[in-house]
Amino acid sequence: MNVTRIGIDLAKQVFQIHGVDRDGKTVVKKQLRRSQMLAYFRKLPAILIGMEACGSAHYWARELNRMGHDARLMSPQFVKPYVKSGKNDANDAEAICEAVGRPNMRFVAVKSVEQQVLQAEHRIRARLIKARTALSNEIRGLLGEFGIVLPASLAKLRQAIPELLEDGENGLLGDFRRLLEQLGEELRKLDDHIKAYDARIAQRAKEDERIKRLLAVEGIGPVVASALVSAVGDAKQFSKGRDMAAWLGLTPSQHSSGGKSRLGHISKRGDKYVRMLLIHGARAALKAAENKEDGRSRWVTGLAKRRNKNIATVALANKNARIAWSILSREETYRPAA
Fold first, then answer.
1. pLDDT, tens digit (0-9, with 9 covering 90-100), for 166-194
2. Is the full-model pTM beyond 0.85?
3. What whole-number distance in Å separates Cα of residue 144 and Cα of residue 138?
4. Residue among 256, 226, 275, 244 nearest 106 (CA)
C-alpha cells in the first residue's frame, strides 16, 4: 500500500481513516476499532498523519509520533472548509487528510503528559472556584429572603455565617440554622480543596525552571505562569510574541478592506482561561505601578490616564504575553526596564 498521508477522524471506539498516495489519490478508506489503532499504524512506514485537536488527540499524537510517524493536530475551524459535502465520519477523515497536506496550514503543538497533568489541575481548580462562587451567591440569596443582606465578599460571608448561627435574636428558625450550618461547612470544604490546589501549583513553580523565570514579570504569579506553561509549553510553535498574544485573543480584531485598516476590540480567541488570568494579573500590576517610577510603570500609568484603566490593563496583559513568549521560546531571563 503506497500511502503517504492519512487523516484520522477521532472518536471513542470507532475511528475513520482516509489515506492518499503521493499523487493525492485515495488508496485507503476504512474504519478501525480502538483496539486496532496502534497495531495498524505500527505496520506502516513513517507517514504524515493529521487529526483535529479534540478530546484524546494529544494522546494519539504522542503514540503515533513514538512510532516514527509525523502526527500533526489542527484546529477544527481550519479543517471545516475542506469538507466536501454532508457531515459524516468518512467525509471528515477525507477533509482532515486534505487539510494536513496544505503547506500553509496552522498546527497545534502536541502537549506532553506533564503539560496535560498541569492543565488538568488548573481545570479542576477553576471548577472549584466556580462552584464556590455559586455557593456563596446562593447563601447570600437565601439570607436575603429573611432580611439579612451581606456584602459581596467571601471574607465577609465566612465571618458572618458563625455570627448568624450564634445570634438567637435574628429571627432564623432552627431548621434554617441547620441548613446554614451545612452550607457553611460546604463552603469551608471548597476553600480547603482550592488551597490544596494552590499549594500544589506553588510547589510546581519552585521546581519548574520555566515557571520560575516567568515569575520575575510583574503581573505573572504562580497560577498565571503554570497555566501558561501548561498551555504553550516552550512556546516555539509561535514565530513571534505577537502570534502568541493573538492566539490568546489579546490583539485587536480586524475588519480591513480596500487598503483601509479597521481595528476593533480584542478578538477574545484562543484559551480564554489563560487570557483571563493574564488580565487579572495585569490589573494587579497596574494598581502596583501607581507607586513606581520605572519605565514600564510610567508607560502603563500614562496609558491609563490617556485612555482608561481597562484599556491599559489589556495592553499590559498583551505585553506580558509577548514577554512570556521570549522567556519560554528563547530560554531568556526577564530584564525589567529601568
1. 988 888 898 999 999 999 999 999 999 99
2. yes
3. 10
4. 244
